[in-house]
Amino acid sequence: MRQLKLNDTVIRYELVFSNRAKRISARIREGQMKITVPQGLTEKKAVAFIESAKERIFGLWQKALAAEEQKPMRRYDEGEHLLFLGEMLVLSVTKSRRQAIQIQRRDQNLIISIPTQVSDNDDPRVIAGALEAWYKTQAREIFWAKLNQFAALMGVEYRQFRLKDQKTRWGSCSALGNINLNWRVILAPECVVDYLVVHELAHLRYLNHSSDFWHVVETYLPDYRGLRSWLKEHGRELGL
Length: 240
Prior knowledge:
By secondary structure, the chain is an alpha/beta fold. The protein folds into 3 domains: 2-70, no CATH class; 81-133, no CATH class; 138-237, 2-Layer Sandwich (Zincin-like). 39% of the residues lie in helices and 28% in strands. It is built from 6 helices and 11 strands. It has helices at 43-52, 54-70, 123-154, 190-202, 211-220, 224-234, and strands at residues 2-6, 9-18, 25-29, 32-38, 81-84, 87-96, 102-106, 109-115, 160-164, 171-173, 178-182. The strands form 3 sheets. A 4-stranded mixed beta sheet has the order 1-2-4-3, covered by helices on one side. Strand 1 and strand 2 form a beta hairpin. The longest helix is centred in the middle third of the chain and has 32 residues, at 123-154. The two termini are 24 Å apart.
């Protein structure tokens, strides 16, 4: 990921070369920016042009953020569907005399009990916060288990694991062996979670995206190309 800086604001963006692109274009969706450039343009010239147009790009960025803020808040009504490991869970909302909000999964149902003292107007905000906390808890447990499983299989050791909440990155591995994984990937099919875990663990051998690196990934996930494509295509759908 590259970045643009204007005053104290930094925007991270993905630079993509396309045979179909006839000009440089920027697309912003859910806080993620992708800048597409024609295939024949050198990376140096593309980056130079983007730098020269960064004030206009920042203007587009601010408009996109303002539009996001104006979106109506999700209501989380009874019967709504929520993704979890690629499956659709049916939301069930009840009121309870208990003091704390509770979430339970029963088969394909996700049951949320809200204290009776919470007003109906506050329900969506309270449910959103509780759901995010529940998803993060599930993600931490599942990611940890998969990291340990695949690390043993691949014969590598990571130093630390951190759960992240990022708009533009699904995971990362540092030179020190620390691995970060984005909790939102827990909404994706389990095979995509496996791909992310194997991808970051493979960086413990090659801290790059060389052919040797991809060979390691392919050794443990022969269909990694399809999983990588799924994440690129559907990644923006992974959210509450």
